[in-house]
UniProtKB/TrEMBL annotation:
Its main location: membrane. It is a multi-pass membrane protein. Keywords: Lipid biosynthesis, Lipid metabolism, Membrane, Phospholipid biosynthesis, Phospholipid metabolism, Transferase, Transmembrane, Transmembrane helix. This is CDP-diacylglycerol--glycerol-3-phosphate 3-phosphatidyltransferase. GO terms for biological process: glycerophospholipid biosynthetic process. GO terms for molecular function: CDP-diacylglycerol-glycerol-3-phosphate 3-phosphatidyltransferase activity. It comes from Candidatus Stercoripulliclostridium merdipullorum. It is an enzyme of class 2 (transferase).
Length: 224
């Protein structure tokens, strides 16, 4: 990507909202980890301020895609950064809650391994202008994990009164996210194989995948 193209893509409203999500991470982590920021909710002192910051940042994801499509501000940079920002927020929120004992460490290990694999693979394919679009299973998994993270900010209540319902939901989210991961993996392996074959044979990736130019997705029309 040329420097001029990158500069033009950075200064768009959708990408600005994505950068806000990146910037929110240290703030909601601090408010989750520092007990002095906790608020009293009934008999419990909880990291509600951290939750509010994270929820406000996450809400920007509802608008950036709409703005990108409505005002033709889509960009390859945004397509790459938007899901990375969402994944980073998920993982850092779960990590923070794990550190304070609100989430079992096994959940963060399982999620981090999957997310790291997808991030590395995603950047590799993006460098070759090949991206895998989100499917319904992935969206359901992400939504379930979001609900689980929200619930986990109130973990002392669920541990005392609701049979660890927050851990049950996050467990379901982990199962769903791995189901989506294996669906993505099949597509990714086919694309990665085609990338290496194109380099070896001096052809295009589209040729190795058996696509015509018309069949290739118009990434600029996708969300950011």
């Amino acid at each position: 990507m040329r420097k001029e193209d990158l500069k033009n893509q950075i200064f768009t409203v959708p990408n600005f909202l994505t950068f806000l999500r990146f910037l929110s991470v240290p703030f909601f982590m601090w408010c989750t980890l520092d007990p002095s920021t906790y608020l009293q909710v009934g008999p419990y002192r909880l990291p509600v301020v951290g939750l509010i910051i994270m929820a406000a940042a996450a809400a920007t994801d509802l608008f950036d895609g709409f703005i990108a499509r409505r005002f033709n501000q889509g960009s390859d940079l945004g397509i790459m950064l938007d899901p990375f920002a969402d994944k980073l927020m998920h993982v850092m929120a779960i990590l923070s809650l794990t550190i304070i004992g609100y989430i079992h460490w096994a959940f963060i290990v399982a999620i981090a391994l999957k997310e790291l694999t997808m991030i590395v693979g995603g950047f590799f394919m993006a460098n070759h202008s090949r991206l895998i679009q989100a499917n319904m299973m992935g969206k359901v998994a992400s939504f379930t994990l979001s609900i689980a993270v929200f619930m986990s900010y109130f973990h002392p209540f669920f541990a005392d009164k609701a049979f660890y319902a927050d851990w049950i939901v996050i467990g379901i989210g982990v199962v769903l996210t791995y189901a989506a991961f294996f669906n993505y993996l099949g597509q990714a392996l086919r694309i990665i194989k085609a990338i290496f074959a194109s380099k070896r044979n001096g052809t295009t990736v589209a040729h190795e995948l058996g696509e015509s130019e018309e069949e290739q997705p118009d990434q600029s029309s996708e969300q950011k």
